[in-house]
Design goal:
171 residues; mainly alpha; 4 helices
Length: 171
């Protein structure tokens, strides 16, 4: 697509999140509180998309309502980001712990030399770091999503101010 072509209509439509796809991706179960936050997030997305279809004709009240929805959406996104951060830190810490335990086991029980024990323990650490990395990626993503919702709230405040400056009235 060149810069002169128009983007498809649904390009800027907020997307819902599938808990089942997420479970598959992180290879773990999603706790009920996080699944609930994702459901609330998806419910708010639907409400936002309905209002944004008419973005050019929204009254100041409706713009404020949209800002309110983005505020709620931001809170849900931070809850989801918090879950991913806790899991990221859990698996990152677990990697170090299991590496240490594996090293001791290899030395004491399997009677391996230092180099072999170190190599074996790194393999255990790597498996946990891979898992941690998945969660870290989702944490960074959700942190960015939450921050973008905060940015949208500021944009809506500016739009409300612009309506007032242009002499717009609430319908």
């Amino acid at each position: 697509m060149t810069i002169f072509q128009q983007a498809p209509e649904d390009t800027f439509v907020e997307q819902e999140i599938s808990v089942e796809e997420l479970k598959e991706e992180v290879k773990d179960s999603i706790p009920p509180a996080t699944a609930k936050a994702i459901k609330r997030h998806n419910d708010m997305i639907v409400k936002i998309n309905v209002l944004e279809e008419r973005i050019d004709v929204l009254s100041p009240f409706e713009l404020s309502k949209l800002e309110f929805f983005y505020n709620k959406l931001e809170r849900e996104a931070w809850k989801i980001a918090g879950y991913f951060k806790s899991q990221y830190q859990f698996y990152y810490g677990r990697a170090s712990t299991e590496r240490g335990n594996s090293y001791v086991y290899e030395r004491d029980v399997n009677k391996r030399n230092i180099n072999d024990s170190n190599y074996a323990s790194r393999k255990v650490e790597g498996a946990n770091l891979e898992h941690s990395g998945i969660y870290e990626g989702y944490f960074v993503t959700w942190r960015g999503i939450a921050q973008s919702y905060a940015g949208m709230q500021n944009t809506l405040k500016d739009m409300i101010k612009a309506v007032k400056v242009e002499g717009g009235e609430q319908s």
